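Annotated sample (chain length 375).
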Amino acid sequence: MNTFDPSHPRARRRFLAQAGAALLGTGGALMLAGCGKEAAAPAAGSAPAGGAAPAAAAAQPKITVAIIGDGRTGVFASLRAGAGGRKLEDEIGAQVVWQPGFTASLPVMEGIKAGGVDFSFATATAVVNAVAAGVPIVPLAAYPLPADEVDVLVAADSPIKTAAGLKGKKIAHQNGTTGTYSLIKYLESAGLRLSDVQAVSLSGADAYTAFAQGSIDAWIHWQPASALALAKLGGKARTLPSVKTYDWAFYVARTGFAEQHPQVAAKLVRLIRETQQYVVAHPDETVAAWAQQGGFEPGSTEQKVYRELIVDVRLSDSGATVLKPINEAAAASTQDLADNFHALGVLPNKVDVRSFLLDPKFDAIKKLVAAELGA
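Output written by the structure step:
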């Protein structure tokens, strides 16, 4: 595999169009691999962790939860490990089937559309594409991603000091993700547009290789990949100042599941918030549990980095401590994202995602979520 394969300039205007097209197609999940381990999208109906469920669980509803990555770190890993003494399946009254291996939340939308996923984390980008493609989702709750979750990395000796210095430079980003939207907004702070730079689409792993080899001038990515890259590269790299994350994160359910088992979905949202609150309050216990689950070697640099990111509240899950029912702030921010992408020509049509997120048809389940969250 080539470590650096620059896209044709027109590809900058096609990245979300291609992503949205993937949702409309019948092929496999769009591969948007992040930094670190890469895994193929899982087949629907994979067995739950720990083997077959007890016979008594047969009467319970079954909820298939999508996991981005291998599921050995993050809030779902802590839920699976019973952080804080929680017994997840007893509390939600359902058997949980964990479906790991998705490379990003956008491919998860394909799984929902195919009926193989009932519940998932989703970035605003994934939600916009899902709405455009008619994916049957019910938005349950949302939170703003940490403002400093995304970094722009440059070489330590690079002449690039600010957003203005990126003009004309080769910048790696992962198509249709939080990184792309943050790049657009960061360039805007210097009066630049995406067309003013050589934006190339690379997976996190390939972008790291290209960056380490000096094949690109800058790389924008989220945590933990960015922090892990900095740790691995030592003094050979640094980050640019004032890079912000503007994206929101959502938890969504497949429409059919939400209609049949709304209380299960609402309770799971509450447990996610409570578990993330536990993670933030117990960073040492958390990283030790993730290491035990195989997320990284005990005592490794990775464990240290993850602990720092938990303490600094910089992981994508970190904001789940303030999970709330969908509100105007989440809807307006996501609409802004959709409008930006449409203005760039990467979304062929305007997407009225705000109206979708605030649609009164979701009021009943929104009340259930609000009751669970005490909102």
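Annotation: The CA atoms of residues 22 and 217 lie 29 Å apart.
Annotation: The longest helix spans residues 262-281.
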